[in-house]
Amino acid sequence: MNVTKSLENKKLTVVVEGRLDTLTAPDLEEELVPALEGVEALVFDLSKLAYISSAGLRVLVGAAQTMDDHSGSMSIVNANEDVRNIFDITGLADVLGVE
Amino acid sequence: MQELTLPALVENLPRVLEFVDGNLEGLGLSPADRMQMDVAVEEIFVNIASYAYNPEEGPATVRFETTKSPATVIIRFMDRGVPYDPLAKPDPDLDQPLQKRRRGGLGIYVVKQYMDGIEYEYRDGQNILTLKKTL
Fold it and tell me: Which end of chain A has fewer CB atoms within 10 angstroms, the N or the C?
């Protein structure tokens, strides 16, 4: 998994590439925790994400809750069909702002 | 039938997926089905690695089989850890608002959605969890 972050006017875009699974999810969480401070809009670009399991969902739910705590927003863009499917079946598409 | 036995440790997940994916090769699965199989295998193996022997270590066996009519992939997980039926847990409430959402607890639910069959039994000191997916 590779994570690329870019911050612009309190909007943080996070590109997650590869596999977001039990082994890599803790790394994403570690990248996110310090990066979210002061961020008003968080956007996950999942165009390069090939695979996600419940461990990945857990980190995304945590990020959404953190943003919500600070009255910020979160959205998920460009998820492929298979990744999008797991958001749909877990009822997370709406609460995570999947577009 | 193919079988892999290895220490039930989270860091062995790539070896388990390699074993399963190697056996799925040539069966003509769509990329969607392939990801669903991988997710289900990850969730079950990680569950075993996290809870079966904790804090000790022990082995897990993954058995891969197929049937022809109907064409089905059957993956069986066996361990000698504490008896644990993951299917006994109630499904998560998917209508909860964001702040009331528990961060975890979705794994087994996802497996149930992705597989066509999932069975648990405890027999001869073994947890036996079987996943079935119709091709």
Answer: C
Largest CA distance in chain B: 46
pTM of the full predicted structure?
0.96
Mean pLDDT score of chain A = 97
Q: For chain B, what is the mean pLDDT?
A: 95
The tens digit of pLDDT for each residue in B89-115 reads 899 999 888 988 877 779 999 999 999
Domains within chain A, CATH numbers bracketed: 2-89 (3.30.750.24)
Query: In this predicted model, what pLDDT tens digit does every residue of A64-95 receive, in sequence order?
Result: 999 999 999 999 999 999 999 999 999 999 99
The Cα–Cα gap between A80 and A45 comes to: 10
Residues 51-90 of B with CB under 8 A from A: none
A5 C-beta neighbours (distance < 10 Å), count:
13
Contact B107 A61 (CB under 8 A): no
pLDDT tens string B57-92: 999 999 999 999 889 999 999 999 999 999 998 999
Is any Cβ of chain B less than 8 angstroms from the Cβ of A4?
A: no
For the domain with range B2-134, which CATH number is right: 3.40.50.10490, 3.30.565.10, 3.20.20.70, 1.20.1530.20?
3.30.565.10
Q: In whole angstroms, what is the distance from residue A64 CA to residue A54 CA?
A: 15
A34 interface with B at CB cutoff 8 Å: no
**A4 vs chain B: nearest CA distance in angstroms?**
23
